[in-house]
Write a structure and sequence with these properties.
The protein has 259 residues and is α+β, with helices and mostly antiparallel strands. The protein is 20% helix and 21% strand.
Length: 259
Amino acid sequence: MTQDFFTLGPARRDPAEEARFISLQRVRGYWEGLIGPGGALPEPAALDPRGLLPALEDVFLAERIGEGLLRLRIAGRRVSAPAGVDMQGLPLSAIFLPEARPALAHTVERVCNHNSLVTMELQAEGGPGRPALTARLLLLPLAVPLRGQPTVLGCLSTLGEIGRAPRRFMVAGAVEERLGQRIKSASARPGHSVTLPDFGQAALPQAPNSQPEERVPDYIFAERPADFTVPDLGDAAGGDGQATEPPARPKLRLVHSSD
């Protein structure tokens, strides 16, 4: 099988076209919100239909039953509409043309074995009573239970009229994103401490022989205490005529034998 339809990496799409497939964005955002620490995939039991309510009719839950095969356990109403029958319990390949099923099988294996997020561009077959119909398929991996098969959360959004007859799709393109690796690297913590420079001091020009910075006093947030000064007793006894108190006699006196 040729791989020319497959692209690895994020897709660049027209924002106006993305708005037509808003259901895929909602499902992807809900799934990414359930990603655990270290990029741990959400478990199927963690899915809450209330979180998927705006896009619930485009959502399905599928289980891998063989190499490249997914069987739908739960399917929304608009997922079953192109086939004309209830898709619950049927393989996902039932809405694909026979020549497109190898590409679907390859995509399913990428999702289940490599924890890849895959978006597929689909084009429905034409003919009498079959107007133009395009679709976009989103496949999101879930955590594999201890006893069970890999499970995939999916979303199928169509654009156009289904027509009078059931429709099947061919693969026009696919984009794979290794979200698991990106989430793990983003959630990792640095193994060493990082010291950031003082950008405020770095912006100031420094003199070549500048003196060390003066220490900030402890009273920076309080009133500065008054400086202690020794009074000049000579001036105090001068021209103002006020008497000054004589100095106090010492408490102790040294007595010598010659006295």
